[in-house]
Design brief:
This protein has helices at about 40-50, 55-60, 65-80, 85-90, 110-115, 125-135, 140-145, 145-150, 155-170, 175-195, 210-215, 240-245, 245-255, 255-275; strands at about 30, 55, 100, 120-125, 200-205. With about 280 residues, it is mainly alpha-helical. A 5-stranded parallel beta sheet has the order 2-3-1-4-5, with helices on both faces.
């Protein structure tokens, strides 16, 4: 099935079982900001700075990762199976310099212990704006019954991508986003701030652009060929998300013939009614 076409998703899908892989590059940055706080834009920004970033979309890009994440989540939150070790995380992030978004931010303690030299960044957003964005994007496919049916038509989504993300949302928001969002939101950011090393910690709003990010990472602000500062990525708003990832909206992308067939049947039905009635 085709991957969604978006600047924050890789164009090529792979099916690599990463278990046992040796880490190729150091993990330099742990990004523990919650989903819908600019994590997609941050991923593209890190790419621009030469850093490979593991985002929730990496599961869609390499669906077998979903199996590993389900094992890690069930071990931590349900006590089923062995807990993930540093070696397990090294394999999962074997080619990445940074981790962002779900399911990584559910493993704050484990990742801080595994990568004690990494810098820690949290993307921030005003709570009510964040809750509204989540409600109109990621909560819909998480809870929609129709979305579950649509996912069955997409092998990558139904078998690998959505199960670990559903599980992550269920365990982190205690099964009810609207009821528990505020408590979880504030507790999460308080926990990260309490546990992160103070000399390597940044609270960051992507509206601030390149300056604070590049200063924190100790890299130059990216410029184009003429010496002008490149625009900071501002992508994956709620309209973009729903166009690309709402399972029902994906049906025409996955099966373009469906729309043509429906149009043909409606035309036949209309003609039949016109001539026979």
């Amino acid at each position: 099935m085709p991957l969604p076409i978006a600047p924050f998703i890789k164009k090529q899908q792979t099916w690599i079982d990463k278990r046992g892989l040796t880490k190729k590059v150091p993990l330099k940055l742990l990004c523990f900001g919650l989903s819908r706080t600019g994590t997609s834009s941050l991923r593209v920004a890190l790419w621009e700075l030469g850093l490979e970033a593991y985002h929730a979309f990496a599961i869609l890009e390499n669906p077998p990762d979903g199996v590993l994440w389900q094992q890690a989540l069930r071990a931590k939150f349900e006590g089923k199976g062995p807990s993930f070790t540093k070696a397990d995380f090294d394999s999962l992030f074997y080619d990445c310099h940074a981790v962002i978004d779900l399911p990584s931010y559910l493993f704050v303690e484990e990742l801080l212990a595994a990568y004690p030299e990494a810098k820690v960044l949290v993307t921030t957003r005003e709570f009510e704006s964040w809750r509204s964005s989540c409600t109109n994007t990621i909560v819909t496919p998480w809870k929609s019954r129709f979305g579950r049916v649509a996912e069955m038509l997409d092998k990558a989504a139904s078998m690998k991508y959505m199960p670990p993300l559903r599980l992550a949302m269920d365990v982190y928001f205690w099964g009810d986003f609207q009821q528990n969002a505020k408590a979880v939101f504030h507790a999460h950011y308080a926990k990260v701030k309490r546990l992160a090393p103070t000399d390597r910690y940044l609270e960051y709003d992507i509206k601030e652009g390149w300056g604070p990010l590049c200063q924190f990472l100790e890299v130059n602000v990216p410029e184009d060929g003429s010496g002008k500062v490149k625009p900071f990525p501002n992508i994956n708003d709620r309209e973009t998300f729903n166009r690309l990832f709402n399972p029902l909206a994906r049906i025409p992308v996955l099966f373009p013939g469906v729309l043509k067939l429906m149009a043909f049947l409606m035309l036949v039905y209309g003609l039949t009614r016109a001539f026979c009635c």
